[in-house]
Amino acid sequence: MRTLHVIGIGVGDPDQLTVAAIRALNDTDVFFAMDKGERTADLVAVRRRICDRFIDDPDYRFVTLPDPVRAATAPDVDYRTTVAEWHDARAAVWAEAITTELPPDGIGAVLAWGDPALYDSTLRILDAVADRVALRYDVIPGITAIQALTAAHRIPLNDVGRPVLITTGRQLHPQALTGTTVVMLDGDCAFTACPPQTRIWWGAYLGSDDEVLVAGTVDAVAEKIVATRAAARARHGWIMDTYLLRPAPDLLRPAPDRPVA
């Protein structure tokens, strides 16, 4: 049966790779990567540099796969339906590549940005691939964008006795923050709708030489973040950013009571 490693590679700094990840790299015959075109070619290049740096035996192959274009969400189509169709198209591409490029007893790998368990579609897609190809896979965790963000800003993830919510910009409810909220995949800068004294710690290209950080209250830095983000995206052709929000102490809503055991 074919074997696939899903290897978390951190968010830009090769030094973030774990010993387990390096061991899995050296166990791999074929690496698979999605090619999203020229605008994100440097993301594939980072993966190649990681392999060049950490693999002792250069007798491996790198296979790039065309990434199906995700359809725009129409007003009368559910967002989840659009994503599910995109994942299914990706699964078909991956199944074909694994069948043709990886021998029946071969070992392949996918290098997942950050950690494979956090807002990444790899594991869901591989479950669909496994319905089409005899395949087993394991997961090697990686440093997440959340870890890189809090480390870069030198802040703890949580306030004492307060909850932590991890969500997307689409699902952010700016007026209902009850504690720390970490926001990922926000292309519309949803933080601009937060109360003015909400504290924000924002970062883009975390862990890389291009890392950009901004921190302050929303009323003081929101416009700066919007402008910085737009300029960086225009310069690089892509952006990966995340941010952490905390309401001002006088805006904190009571945390839900915990059930008594």
UniProtKB/TrEMBL annotation:
Listed Pfam families: TP_methylase
GO MF term list: precorrin-6A synthase (deacetylating) activity
Positions of the Tetrapyrrole methylase domain: 3-221
Gene3D superfamilies: Cobalt-precorrin-4 Transmethylase, Domain 1, Methyltransferase, Cobalt-precorrin-4 Transmethylase, Domain 2
Pathway: Cofactor biosynthesis; adenosylcobalamin biosynthesis
InterPro entries linked: 4pyrrol_Mease (IPR000878), 4pyrrol_Methylase_sf (IPR035996), 4pyrrole_Mease_sub1 (IPR014777), 4pyrrole_Mease_sub2 (IPR014776), CobF (IPR012797)
Keywords: Cobalamin biosynthesis, Methyltransferase, S-adenosyl-L-methionine, Transferase
Entries under CDD domains matching the protein: Precorrin-6A-synthase
GO terms classed as biological process: cobalamin biosynthetic process; methylation
NCBIfam families registered for this protein in UniProt: CobF
Name of the protein in its database record: Precorrin-6A synthase (Deacetylating)
Native species: Mycolicibacillus koreensis
